[in-house]
Amino acid sequence: MLATTRRLAKPLLTGARSFAAKGKGGAAAAEEVVDLTKVVPTNILKDGAHPELKDKSEYPEWLFTLLDPKPTLGELDRTGFDNLEMEEQHRYLVLLNRRSVKATNAEKAKK
């Protein structure tokens, strides 16, 4: 009888959340200052170095076309599937599939 009352008197602490001890106020870590005109700060290694920027002439031509706007589904549809290049046909099919998936999801959300 004594054992059962003892269990009820003190709650079980399994799964209780505890917090880390407060740290002593120390000096803040100094941040590295990087000159963005000479390097790109993409290094993730402790002992590694940031890659240096080169002249535009040293980069390939296709690199500067990556951010060009791509044709939309409506533009590709107006051109016609048979008149598109292979990459444009692939983009057309991807956009068409995306539209059908969104329509199906919207239909299911209404129910």
TrEMBL record:
One Gene Ontology cellular component term attached to this UniProt record is: mitochondrial large ribosomal subunit
- The answer to whether the entry has keyword Transferase is no
Enumerate the GO terms in the molecular function aspect. structural constituent of ribosome
Where does it primarily localize?
mitochondrion
Q: Which domain of life is it from?
A: Eukaryota
Where in or outside the cell?
Answer: Mitochondrion
Q: What keywords sit in the KW lines?
A: Mitochondrion, Ribonucleoprotein, Ribosomal protein, Transit peptide
Entry similarity comment = Belongs to the mitochondrion-specific ribosomal protein mL54 family.
What is this protein called in UniProt? Large ribosomal subunit protein mL54
